[in-house]
Amino acid sequence: MTEPPIRTGGPRGSGDVQLGDVPADVATRVIRAVDRSPFSVVTLIDADLTIRWISRSATWVTGTEPDSRRGLNSLERIHPDDVGRILHGLEQLRQATLADAEAAAIPEPIRYRFRRMDGRWVVMEATIHNLLADPVVEGFLVFARPVSGELDG
Fold this sequence. Notes:
Layout: H1 24-36, E1 41-45, E2 51-54, H2 58-62, H3 80-95, E3 110-115, E4 121-131, E5 139-146
Antiparallel strand pairs: 1-2, 1-5, 3-4, 4-5
């Protein structure tokens, strides 16, 4: 049995996933593999920091189903002491353009604390990419993973 194609959600459309010139069936398989990856949580957030899409792997990190996180503010479960650092990094990214590809991503991963649904805090490390100017994405793409250890100042 084959799975139905992944659809893009929200206000930007409901067609098959497209990744540039990659055929739709291949793009769908790539996105499906990312969605199921147990190694990291992939999140797409709007310019206003609302979660548009989050991978299924978020379930084991957050303790909730991804559908329950869509439409929420991406910072609501971040430790208050870490929010300023994340906002600073995002503001730097907002100034970047696709013309300056090196500046379109935070050069060093950001570490922060994320509160799970059971109340426990998990230290996460994220790399954030500015794809606001990309007409297909129009957002920030975040790759995050749980890490052990202390936060970087």
